[in-house]
Here is the input.
Amino acid sequence: MDKAAGILSANLGEKLILHDVASSLKIPYLIFGVKYYKLPPGECRIKKRIEKGQELLQEGVNVKETSAQLGYSDAYSFSRQFKQVTGISPGKYINFPF
Here is the structure.
């Protein structure tokens, strides 16, 4: 399961076909993420990408560059998913006092 967790957390800007990754590890697809993170694999991957996005934004990387580094097709797609996961937009997150 550590190898599976590493794959989900690595190369967040690259597209993964999670069924193929699970097959290569000889792990049933649902167990691939659920056993380790208590989430389906796709949701685990989204969570990891948004966490990395939060780090980049805190480091001063702008929304457009953050979305590109994480493999989103555009800043809008990243912003929409960011807000779904965190409850606030990336712009508000940048200005949030930590």
Q: What stands out?
A: The chain has a mean pLDDT of 85. The chain is about 70% helix and 0% strand. The chain has one domain: 2-95. Residues 2-95 form a domain with the Arc Repressor Mutant, subunit A fold (CATH 1.10.10.60).
